TrEMBL record:
GO terms for biological process: signal peptide processing. The chain crosses the membrane at residues 12-33, 135-159. One of its GO terms (cellular component) is membrane. Keywords: Membrane, Transmembrane, Transmembrane helix. It comes from the Bacteria. This is Signal peptidase I.
Length: 174
């Protein structure tokens, strides 16, 4: 590969990695601050919220460690078959609508043997738009002190990595 294109690809990869890492940090900070201020267990940005699935109640559609992106919508738009997130106290649950009676929805986790209690649509936090497999495992790690330390080290390595590389290769004059 020509050196010019190799340098362009390397530079592009570095900027893309830094951009994604920065975006990840900013979104995490915003949602964390939003949750701390509003005490809402499901903080949202423009009606959209990412949630990490912690149980296997929705397997095989959604696995533990997956991230579901939910979007709040009007109560009349929910229908049987939709996967929705709702609150029981301060705990969010993500299950499928399997029935409706008297204006209340019947929900059930795909791998659960029994249905949940009936839930009114006003208790829904949103409908699952899509799922990002297994990224929740990394997010949970990065929210812990060790994970935050790794993020800071990656950021510092990104900022100072070029100089360190040049020093190790002996290309920096003393």
């Amino acid at each position: 590969m020509l050196p010019k294109y190799k340098k362009m690809l390397t530079t592009g990869f570095v900027y893309l990695t830094f951009g994604l890492l920065s975006l990840f940090i900013l979104i995490n900070l915003f949602l964390g601050i939003n949750k701390a201020i509003t005490h809402n267990p499901v903080p949202k940005v423009f009606g959209i919220s990412p949630l990490i699935v912690m149980s296997g109640s929705m397997e095989p559609a959604i696995y533990p460690g997956d991230v579901v992106i939910i979007w709040e919508q009007a109560a009349e738009k929910y229908k049987i078959g939709d996967i929705v997130t709702y609150l029981v106290g301060q705990t969010p649950f993500t299950h499928r609508i399997v029935g409706e009676e008297n204006g209340l929805f019947i929900l059930k986790g795909d791998s659960n043997n029994t249905v949940d209690d009936t839930v009114s649509a006003d208790r829904f936090e949103g409908k699952v738009l899509f799922t990002v497999p297994k990224i929740g495992v990394a997010i949970v790690f990065f929210k812990k002190p060790a994970g935050m330390a790794v993020l800071v080290m990656l950021l510092l390595l990104y900022i100072n990595g070029g100089d360190l590389y040049k020093k190790v290769r002996g290309t920096v004059s003393k």
